[in-house]
Records
---
Amino acid sequence: MKGKILACRCEDVTLHELEDAIARGHDDIESLKRYTGFGTGWCQGKSCLALCARVLAAKGGDASLPFTPRPPYHPVSLAHLAALVADDDEENEDSARDARDARDEHDGEDAPT
Amino acid sequence: MTLDGASIVADGDASLASALVAAGQLELARSPKFHRPRGPSCMRGGCDGCLVRLDGMPNVMSCMTRAKPGAKLERQNVVLSAKLDVLRAADWFFPDGMNHHEMFAGVPGVQDIMQSLARRVAGLGELPEHAVAAHTAIDDLTADVLIVGAGLAGLVAACVLGRLGLGVIVLDEGMRPGGSLLSFPEHAKVALGVDGAIVDIDELRANLVSEAASAGATFVAETTLLGVLEGGDWLGNGHDRGLVRVKARARILAVGAHDGVPAIVANDLPGVLSARAAGRLLREGVLIGDAPLVVGDGLHAEAFAAAAAGHGAKVQRASLASLQGARGLSRVRGAVLTEGSGTRKVSCDAVVVDAPCAPSFELAVEAGARVTHGEPGFSVVVDVDGRFGGAPSGDVGSRNSPLFALGEVTGAALDHAAFARAASRLGRAVAALVEAR
Ligand code: FES
């Protein structure tokens, strides 16, 4: 049957492209991903990685390790993530205040009377 | 609601995606390079098929968002019109695919034109209409034990650990607890009794949820784990609420598995979907086709085929090995099967595939787990207590590792009896760990 078989639907990588890349020597998951771009789209490999690893293994490549999973594992808006920065700032302020307090105490001890 | 200005009527507490499919709107988006039509394929937040623009916000996963009155939905990435996207021409021009390493690269002038075109058409959606206020606070949760995933494995673990007197929080991305149990049609009869007996899936789910709750487990819904923070706390995202940070002495990953995707022609065509997705749609009141071809013989395929036939659908069955591809220009009109030494065309309006699921190993690996590769995908390696990694060396089952995995994420098949046995061993190990601290 003719027609495209999608290896990675988010990035429109076809099975043909995948096999071509393996034939060019990209025969481990990480290099195969870097060359074809599979697994780099919206789903980050949730729907394509297993299929691509299966194809690679069948072609004699090294599918023992997945590509490195990187957070976030689900799309998240920058507006939500901004809370992390606010939280960090708060912590930094706390430690800056601690440092200031420590310095003040120290200064207090050494202050000429 | 409206989709591109046309009115859509939804009822109940369906997801946006099921409301759209119910209204006959299966082609929701276009793919980035070939502008092939895309539709929902997983109904569980794991593909690119259901993205829409909602009230001016791009890239909303409509399968994980509740339908709400007055919602203004728009298709994304469509050039000219949804029915006739001019960039689909790319699909015909490049029958095998595009190798962007070689295409027009290094040709002076042409390269620049191609790049500016690519910039215009690539990407998903357009920027939001309005600026969104930044969140400033993180919700902090603390428990003895965090369980990620409220599917069969997570629920079984919550019951066991709750009964041991531990404080349990169960985080789940769904609108209600159940995970892939909710991917069975309503009241499906499935061999998932703890003794292997055939049970009503909704009675099973309700019993487990109420047992866990009365053992003291707290459910946090619509919250997805994002990753591990410096210091070891886990970070989640409450879909409407914002970030959630969980401190727990022991953590159990019961995140299940991603849909298996078959390498068949036009596996991305709207109307080709997993048996779990078809089951979930049916649970939300939407039969994906009047004449669906159900492929494979797993629990979900069997349950969907039975329920669809019960709803009057003309169900056809085929084996996974015989499926060569789907046919149709913008949605499924048929399929091609191997028969003897030749092929056979069948006409159908949906291809419902039950292929072995691929364990969702991602978070476990970030937290230090080892995985092995097998036919369905990468599974998290656990010791006899269900422990994984956690030690700097990544040793499996390092005695004091507070990290555990249970269920399909370890490569196990959906099996209540096996999950219950594993959970009781895991429970003893977790209780010992929490007491020791
Ligand atoms: S992500 Fe919604 S259908 Fe797959």
---
Amino acid sequence: MTAPTTVDARGLLCPMPVIRVQDKARGLSSGSRLELLATDAGVHVDVPAWCRVHGHVVKACYEQDGEISMLIELGGALPGNNP
Amino acid sequence: MTTAIALISGGLDSMLAAKLVLDQGVDVKGVNFYTGFCVEGHTQSIRSREAKKPKRNNALWVAEQLGIELELVDVSEEYKRVVLNPKHGYGKNLNPCVDCKIFMLEKLKELREQGRLAFDFMLSGEVLGQRPMSQKRTRLDIIAKESGSEDELLRPLSAKLFPPTLAERRGWVDRESLLGISGRHRGTQFRLAQEFGFEDYAQPAGGCCFLTDPSYASKLSDLWGARGRRTYELEDILLLKVGRHIRPAADFKLIVGRDEGENRFLEGFRRRFPHFKPVSHEGSLVLLDGAATRPNIDLAARIAGRYSQGKDTPEVTISYTSCDGVSEDLCVTPMAMHEVRNDWHLGR
Ligand code: SF4
């Protein structure tokens, strides 16, 4: 399995981390994985909500010393991949 | 299948507009523009006393309730020209609503040209006559015309009060199922929300962004005045949403956390601003925005003492940290209540 693509959104406030994830996901295929690094606790709510809306899945989430790492697996509809 | 793109602010009107069209079998997708001024769940719940409110992004919440996809688009840089130079002026405060709507509709079309969005027509939750400035008939006509959306723009909540648009004429939507709401009363919207089973929707007072808020607008005007030019960075406008803003002199202001939630939020800005934190007593984190000269630092330390538990003691120790991360302890007499002048408080 290839390493996930990293999205570094440390220091950014919501909704910017979710926008960064979304923009990185554009063009990736279903099954691809992204690792989000963030510091705003709002991502605990926004990213799962964004995943539910688009059919992606949060596979894991770790938090240490205020730094959050979230593993997301893409599935379903991918933003920007219009028919 | 016919596709519509809906401007989703996170409030009730755009949610209802999208729902009315979705129920007609149209494939509706949402777009939410992040301008930096947005009123959204997270910002509202920064304050501890409001921490019980759900922390959420309202636009994502709306998309989830409706079962539609949502594209979030960061327009914070481009949006500056709308706020700084609105052709159609401001509303009651610093809200450039007419230019803002034109900008958003233009942006939708631009995203279509770039291939990022695909749609046959656009939806907005505007209601005729609901807002004094932007939702008068003439203004709504200007918005449709100047954005170049004209016929492609459907306003489902007030559609019957306008000539049929492309979507109605082509039969993509049934005009009879759309509404003819006008005016400031929101009874019909509340009734509809109940019929659709929408609960817990966001209802920001005033409007969909902080620019409609008089206190926020006055802090933004102060920022422009102090800098001698009308400009801002994203960081500036986020900080205006939080804390007590005190300007004791033209060349600096202080941002004082009002509770634990705000202190935590301000902590995120510690590396970028000189700051003060009481060490002898409990107290607020205070950021200094402006000239960190010795007289300003000394004055600020006394004000930081005022907003600490030691405010009535003869002396408090305040730790001051510069932008370079160098800290020093300052022993100061907290400023007395009457010394903190009323006109120093911004946005009151
Ligand atoms: S309230 Fe703010 S976001 Fe809403 S139309 Fe006016 S300027 Fe734009």
